């Protein structure tokens, strides 16, 4: 049987390093959570990805063809993304055109950016 010796019994042990860096405000956390919630669907991720890599607004009919979904289903997804502030919507006659809201995308990028790499 091994014997354990107590070292520095006069001060409590620390389990880990304190958390550093600037924290996020409750308001920013709520806004970011809403953006992430809107992205919590594979079709919406694909929509945002496509709009992030496309110059100019895209017609909803083009998104329908891309996803292989019906127009009402695509419109439902687009409405969620617009409500969350991720997309901007422009009406041109009977067609709606969408573009990525670059400010919202940048906000997501800031939250997800890891400084100093990962462990």
The gist of it:
By secondary structure, the protein is an alpha+beta fold. The protein has a domain at 44-111: Winged helix-like DNA-binding domain superfamily/Winged helix DNA-binding domain (Arc Repressor Mutant, subunit A, Orthogonal Bundle), CATH 1.10.10.10.
Give a structural overview.
The chain has 5 helices and 3 strands, in the order H-H-E-H-H-E-E-H. The protein has helices at residues 26-38, 42-52, 60-67, 71-83, 102-112, and strands at 58-59, 87-92, 95-100. The longest helix has 13 residues, at 26-38. It has a domain at 44-111: Winged helix-like DNA-binding domain superfamily/Winged helix DNA-binding domain (Arc Repressor Mutant, subunit A), CATH 1.10.10. The chain is elongated, with a radius of gyration of 23 Å. It has 119 residues and is α+β, with helices and mostly antiparallel strands. Helix 2 (42-52) crosses helix 4 and helix 3 packs across helix 4. Strands 1-3-2 form a 3-stranded antiparallel sheet.
Strands ordered across the widest β-sheet: 1-3-2
The chain-level mean pLDDT equals 82
Bin the helical content.
40-55%
Shape field: elongated
Number of helices: 5
CATH architecture of the domain at 44-111: Orthogonal Bundle
**SSE pattern:** HHEHHEEH
Helix/strand/pairing class, anyone?
alpha+beta
CATH class of the domain at 44-111: Mainly Alpha
* Rg estimate, integer Å: 23 Å
**CATH homologous superfamily caption of the domain at 44-111:** Winged helix-like DNA-binding domain superfamily/Winged helix DNA-binding domain
């Amino acid at each position: 049987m091994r014997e354990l010796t107590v070292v520095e019994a006069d001060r409590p042990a620390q389990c880990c390093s304190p958390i550093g860096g600037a924290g996020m405000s409750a308001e920013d956390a709520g806004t970011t959570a809403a953006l992430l919630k809107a992205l919590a669907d594979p079709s919406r991720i694909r929509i945002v990805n496509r709009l992030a890599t496309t110059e100019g607004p895209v017609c909803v009919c083009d998104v329908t063809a891309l996803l292989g979904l019906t127009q009402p289903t695509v419109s439902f997804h687009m409405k969620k993304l617009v409500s969350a502030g991720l997309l901007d919507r422009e009406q041109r006659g009977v067609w709606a055109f969408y573009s990525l809201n670059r400010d919202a995308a940048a906000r997501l990028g800031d939250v997800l950016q890891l400084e100093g790499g990962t462990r």
